[in-house]
């Protein structure tokens, strides 16, 4: 054989060997690690919770060690050993952990408020008490004793809003730090079996290396998290305890509002009282109820100027609606801000001749809210949520006679959700969800029912998922004899894809009918759609070259109007990000290409299909980076531009949109941190709705009555947020958050919209320029003086301005000064919660 032939054969064998090695490596990366097992040891004497594992029982328990790195280099054994032991008695599960390190300085320990991650090492305990490999608990502690806890579920993933009452003590001893954790059985749910089999895992984060390790290896290329835990054995003859706790509260408010109507006091006071109740109905199900709730201390909403045809979705900050709601979030049919929202007749209140609206509540006060949820030993999750709100009235006063009349803006209402969720093998499930809103009086009721499913193959590599949802409304529009027109609608979705491995992909098809409307208890920004999408991703989890990992992903999407069936839009998206090995600098980009599309929603003409706004094709590109968060100073930034094709139908200038964001953070020490965020955007020569359409509250201008008028406008929006957090210790903290938002709209010309997307310039004389400003201050002092018990002192300051026509100004500092000098609403409140646990009280007695 010639040398050339030999070389070719050698190259072929080498290529086959490398290919086989790569295939073997990929197969290893997508094959779940063997399930480790740990034996728990029963104890008969109480442990002293002091962060010192000096009791003899700790030395007798088996040790969980040899953790495996999950990031930044998956599969590497830990060098600084971790040792974990598990004990239990009739009432508690105890976890003792020793985290060995090279020196005390290597243990990072920023002090934060509860449930807040910082520049700190952490140790975590994970429990899957029903061993369904889908749902689980997380109990985390830092070297300074800060507690964090979370729930895991398919609906919400990792839910850090969940809180439990448990105990932990930590200590730094030489080059080690120690965590001692006591988890009462009342904090978790498990079956009433003679011997428990629980999913179990432990995690350790060494922040100095930005490395995370797990006892039972968790491979990032495998879909799912709870399904990659080990098992805990040996917990025998423990009974689910009676879980009964009462958390009464008292609160007091002093409110100063200089904008109160004439005849109303500027400064008012109020006192409130109520309670939260938790009752374990049995070993599986828990009732949570809040009686006469008070949500006056939650963080202020980020109010914005909304020029879109859709409502603004606000974050939920009320703890009762964020904690333990994983079942109710199945299918995204529950938008909790609907409960206690703005009354449905708020905007319909009219003052007659010589009358003035002196009071019109913008929120609906709840009478109570209750939820029952849990999961049986067979994996059936059941959830029931119910809330009641009372009648809400606006007050209108005759300015001549002083006589007042009441206008009902919200009838007595009942909100209800019921969920059945059956866990299946291979990380699969089927679910049934029903949401219902019943209102008393002459108005309408709403009901939504949905069925969902997800089926994974045995290797957890491929999945089929989907669902069908039916919405139904019955009755009349509030305050009218007119029947609602979106009475019955539906939505269905089906998808298939590869969910694990280096390469992932998914194909999805969805239809939302023209009458589908879940918005009485859910949220949907636009129905009447047919959408097809194909997603793909490539993920490199192991370090290579100079980076720790690399991810690239894309999507192709095509959308039609459902009725009548017409083209809406299609788009192509590509994004990528990576983290450099030594600097831990994260960089990435997002880009999309959107060919010419038809916007049927912007004209606000219903039913859809007759009018639409033609949007020229566009290309969007955004780049971002985030620096190493371990440094005292860290910075994140992004900058993006969307360029549009020239739309020369009316000889208009080319559209463009620019955006910029900067997010510096400076950590003064382990107690004090400052954060700042700046978001700026400019929409240049945008085309948007001005008046007409179906908006009955919009004043129409002669001679354009009954016509849709669009405007070419420039929109500049700036948001500044300054935050300061000082944490005294792991139970006491103070935070200050100040936000100023301004959005300025300047119109250049106007056009009449015709059928088929045709536009015609018109001589529209009305000045529609406007400027909106919002300013908020939230200052919160919080002290957890006992487990589950808290004192919070809050100052809230809020003010806003909406300037029209000649008063609108594009100058930022003019807007800032106007906002600061405008009278603001000020509120100072104190609230005391005290946690009373039945088992503790009985033991003390």
UniProtKB/TrEMBL annotation:
Tagged with keyword Cell division: no
Signal peptide location: 1-25
GO-annotated biological processes: carbohydrate catabolic process
Domain of life: Bacteria
InterPro entries reported for this sequence: Carb-bd_dom_fam9, DUF5916
GO molecular function terms noted in the UniProt entry: carbohydrate binding; hydrolase activity, hydrolyzing O-glycosyl compounds
Start and end residues of each Carbohydrate-binding domain: 50-206
Record carries keyword Nucleotide-binding: no
Annotated ranges, domain DUF5916: 240-843
Protein name: Hydrolase
Lineage of producing organism: Bacteria, Pseudomonadati, Bacteroidota, Cytophagia, Cytophagales
């Amino acid at each position: 054989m010639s040398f050339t032939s030999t070389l070719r054969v050698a190259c072929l064998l080498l290529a086959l060997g490398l290919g086989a090695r790569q295939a073997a490596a990929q197969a290893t990366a997508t094959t779940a690690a063997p399930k480790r097992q740990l034996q728990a040891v029963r104890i008969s004497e109480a442990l002293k919770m002091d962060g010192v594992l000096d009791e003899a029982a700790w030395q007798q328990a088996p040790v969980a060690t040899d953790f495996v790195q999950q990031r930044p280099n998956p599969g590497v054994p830990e060098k600084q050993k971790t040792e974990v032991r598990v004990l239990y008695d009739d009432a508690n599960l105890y976890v003792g952990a020793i985290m060995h390190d090279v020196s005390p300085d290597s243990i990072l320990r920023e002090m934060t408020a509860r449930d807040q991650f910082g520049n700190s090492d952490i140790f975590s305990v994970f429990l899957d008490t029903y061993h369904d490999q889908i749902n689980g608990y997380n109990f985390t502690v830092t070297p300074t004793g800060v507690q964090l806890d979370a729930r895991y579920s398919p609906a919400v993933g990792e839910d850090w809003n969940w809180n439990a009452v448990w105990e932990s003590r930590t200590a730094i001893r030489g080059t080690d730090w120690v965590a001692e954790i006591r988890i009462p059985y009342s904090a978790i749910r498990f079956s009433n079996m003679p011997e428990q089999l629980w999913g179990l895992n432990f995690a350790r984060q060494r922040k100095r290396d930005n490395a995370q390790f797990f006892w039972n290896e968790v491979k990032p290329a495998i879909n799912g998290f709870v399904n990659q835990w080990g098992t805990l054995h040996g917990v025998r003859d423990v009974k689910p305890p009676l879980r009964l706790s009462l958390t009464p509260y008292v609160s007091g408010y002093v409110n100063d509002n200089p904008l109160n109507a004439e005849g109303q006091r500027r400064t008012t006071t109020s006192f409130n009282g109520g309670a939260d109740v938790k009752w374990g109905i049995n070993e599986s199900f828990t009732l949570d109820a809040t009686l006469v709730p008070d949500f006056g201390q939650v963080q202020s909403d980020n109010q914005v100027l909304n020029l879109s045809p859709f409502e603004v979705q606000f974050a939920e900050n009320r703890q009762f609606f964020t904690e333990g709601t994983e079942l109710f979030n199945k299918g995204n049919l529950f938008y909790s801000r609907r409960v206690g929202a703005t009354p449905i007749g708020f905007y319909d209140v009219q003052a007659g001749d010589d009358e003035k609206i002196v009071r019109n509540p913008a929120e609906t006060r709840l009478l109570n809210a209750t939820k029952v949820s849990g999961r049986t030993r067979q994996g059936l999750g059941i959830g029931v949520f119910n809330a009641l709100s009372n009648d809400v009235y606006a007050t209108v006063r005759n300015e001549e006679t002083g006589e007042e009349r009441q206008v009902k803006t919200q009838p007595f209402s009942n909100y209800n959700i019921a969920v059945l969720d059956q866990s299946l093998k291979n990380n699969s499930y089927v679910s049934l969800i029903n949401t219902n809103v019943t209102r008393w009086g002459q108005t309408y009721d709403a009901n939504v029912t949905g069925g969902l499913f997800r089926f994974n193959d045995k290797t957890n590599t491929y999945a089929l998922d989907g669902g069908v949802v039916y919405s139904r409304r019955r009755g009349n529009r509030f305050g009218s004899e007119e029947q609602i027109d979106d009475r019955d609608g539906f939505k269905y979705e089906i998808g298939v894809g590869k969910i694990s491995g280096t390469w992932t992909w998914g194909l999805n098809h969805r239809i939302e009918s023209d009458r589908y409307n879940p918005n009485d208890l859910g949220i949907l920004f636009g129905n009447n759609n047919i959408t097809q999408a194909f997603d793909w991703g490539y993920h490199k989890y192991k370090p290579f070259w100079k980076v720790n990992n690399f991810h690239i992903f894309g999507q192709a999407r095509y959308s039609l109007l459902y009725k009548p069936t017409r083209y809406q839009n299609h788009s192509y998206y590509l994004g990528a990000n990576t983290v450099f090995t030594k600097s831990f600098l994260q960089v990435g980009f997002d880009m999309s290409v959107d060919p010419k599309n038809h916007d049927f929603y912007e004209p606000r003409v219903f039913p859809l299909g007759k009018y639409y706004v033609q949007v020229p094709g566009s290309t969007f590109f955004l780049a971002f980076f985030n620096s190493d968060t371990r440094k005292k100073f860290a910075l994140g930034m992004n900058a993006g531009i969307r360029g549009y094709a020239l739309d020369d139908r009316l000889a208009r200038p080319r559209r463009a949109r620019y955006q910029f964001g900067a997010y510096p953070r400076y950590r003064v020490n382990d107690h004090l941190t400052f954060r700042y965020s700046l978001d700026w955007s400019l929409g240049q020569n945008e085309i948007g709705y001005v008046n007409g359409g179906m908006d009955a509250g919009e004043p129409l201008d002669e001679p354009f009555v009954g016509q849709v008028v669009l405007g070419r406008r420039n929109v500049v929006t700036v948001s500044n947020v300054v935050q300061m957090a000082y944490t005294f210790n792991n139970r006491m903290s103070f935070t200050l958050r100040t936000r100023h938002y301004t959005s300025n709209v300047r119109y250049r010309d106007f056009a009449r919209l015709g059928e088929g997307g045709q536009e015609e310039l018109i001589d529209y004389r009305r000045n529609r320029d406007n400027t909106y400003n919002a300013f908020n201050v939230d200052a919160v002092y919080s002290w957890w003086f006992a487990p589950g018990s808290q004192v919070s002192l809050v100052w809230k300051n809020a003010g806003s301005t909406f300037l029209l026509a000649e008063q609108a100004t594009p100058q930022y500092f003019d807007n800032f000064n106007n906002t600061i000098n405008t009278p603001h609403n000020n509120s100072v409140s104190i609230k005391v919660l005290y946690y009373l646990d039945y088992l503790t009280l009985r033991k003390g007695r």
